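Proteins fold reproducibly. Look at a sample protein:
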Amino acid sequence: MAGPDLLQAILDSPTRHGIIVTDVDGLIRMWNKGAARIFLYSDEEIIGVDARALFSPDDLARGVPDQEMTNALKDGCAGDFRWHVRKDGTLFWADGMIYPVRSRDGKHLGFVKILRDATKEKQSDEANSRLALEDSLTGLANRTEFRNRFVDMAASAQRHEQSLVLMLLDLDRFKDVNDRLGHTAGDALLQQAAHRMRAVVRDTDFIARFGGDEFVVLLPDAQSPQEGGSVAEKLVATLSRPFHINEREVQIGASIGLAAYPQDSPDLDQLFMKADLALYRAKAAGRGVYRFYSAQMDAGAHRHNLEHVQLRRAVKDRAFTLHYQPQIDSVTGKVSAVEALLRCSDPFFSGYPIEKVLALAVETGRMRRLGLWVLAESVRQVRKWQLLGWPELRLAVNFCHIEFTDSRFAQRALELLARMGVRPGQLDIDISEMQLAAGMDAGELVELARDGVSIAIDDLGAGGLSLKHLLELPIRTAKLDLRFVPDIPTDPRSCAIVAGVSQLARALGIRVVAERVDSEQQAEFLRPYCDAMQGFHFARPMTATDMTAWLQANGANSPASTGNIASPA
């Protein structure tokens, strides 16, 4: 054996290593059986092919193959420790070196690369590295990984001029569980608590366990430190729900202290001390709460937390009432509909606008429940009026986008109407222009409209609604709010807008209802342009009892006066 045959035999002998010989341009001229086994190509498929075909797309984009050959020429060899691509597209981790090949007179002839498949070792090393940075009980990060991640997140917050909120969390009454049920139960509780916390925070947030029942959460990309309050509230709520350990129900809770980078401190140790101080204050306040290090932010967060607690209690106790305001038909002057308006009777919210109360209901997840109560109560009351002598009286009810995320909303509403004996065509569901413009899911609206319910755009003029919504959505009524067309009828521009909206709506078969009509001059101007009007000029919102008396005096049996009709005392 001599010559090329001997050389090939030598190359093929180390079967666990791949040996690849290229020319100066990187074209493969020879390789051994080990390389064929690793890369899965036959000799016929690979000889003459550019060795760059064996590199990953990321390495190709970064010019790694050329850099590897350059380093080998300069230093006599270069490491090849990276992912390579097999014929079938799978990746493997190479552990190898590349050397320049020279003739006896020093002429550069090409390169030889010797490598092996070290994927298992690579994966094992990475697994060990993860274990070194991971809490073995909960699978969360540990202290070491927390410090690594804080450095990265703090740098990002500084670059983007944002806040990084640090939350220090302790489980309340955890020691009692450990002492009473044993360490195995305590471990199970910690695992369940970690799972709940993961479900509450965003994917971009970071949770670590520091040991025992102490956890830390990092919230990056915060526009302001106050954003941490809503997350802290969710964590307190989820950890306050009962746990089930060994078929036993266990009730604990959580206390949280918050500090913000860089507002409270740019130094991690100082920031941690301030979050710890805030945690101490939370525990002193009775546990099951959160506190900010900053006194000013803490006062605001405490108030917000109290608002949420009070709102949940108000919904549970049904501390709400409905008032009703009539809509007057522009042609007949008679009552055509009543709008149900929610009022909160809880003393805590006595100075709050109802819009603020509703926003809190959305934040606390109580809006669906509250909305269904409003619908049931108002439909029941309108049916009473229909039976008392106003059979064609319609009902208008305001809803928010959160309620339509319930996939059974339309079904529930239609079942309620059928049970109460109110026709779907006698219900107007009002949804604000702003919410429609924000791209809410209109699937439930479409289903309701298909069964005869009238869909109305409320607060028309608030801005943002595209004209295509008038074509794509099943809108039957547009409610024109006079706040957005002031000084009717003295301002020619506002008058022109009303005339234009009316002409467009009627061309599309859409009714127009004018809201906030406060004077006879406004009413007189609007009658030719609007199908109905509503406002203090006709009646203020009133209780169901007062509305009954008002209907008896001004309802469908006689035309409503064109003068200012006051609500009954």
